[in-house]
Amino acid sequence: MYRFLGAGHETTSTLLTWTLYILSQNERVVKKLREEIATVMGDSNEFGIGELEKLTYMSHVFKEVFRMFPPVSIVARRTTCETKLGEYTLPAKVYFVYYNKIIGY
Ligand code: HEM
Description:
The structure is a single chain. The chain has 105 residues and is of the alpha+beta class. 58% of the residues lie in helices and 15% in strands. It contains 5 helices and 4 strands. The strands form 2 sheets. A two-stranded antiparallel sheet has the order 1-4. It has a two-stranded antiparallel sheet with strand order 2-3. The longest helix has 23 residues, at 2-24. Bound molecules: protoporphyrin IX containing FE (HEM).
């Protein structure tokens, strides 16, 4: 139950909240999104996976919001063997955390 409430709901609502905030500050982006939606939808009211896949600019907007404000900012992992991470070498069987927000900058 926690997974669907915590993992599924809070992450999605955080992403949407930041997206709406970013859009409220970027009229130009809102205009481009509206144009893309109008082009993809035309006169149709039917919206499905096919239409969703064509909204490439919208996808880029979400990815940028993910980068700027990752809903899950800290992730923990454990190495199973010696692992190279860029210029760092982590020994086997250690726990480490990484901060998504820093990686995105
Ligand atoms: C913007 C939306 C979402 C983001 C940013 C997000 C992010 C993440 C991240 C980073 C993990 C890995 C955590 C870790 O391994 O330490 C994860 C795992 C997971 N997420 Fe999401 N998630 C999102 C939406 C959802 C939704 C909608 C659901 C379910 C309806 C969901 C269910 C899960 C579950 C069950 C796991 C654990 C998977 C496993 O342990 O193998 N997530 N999510």
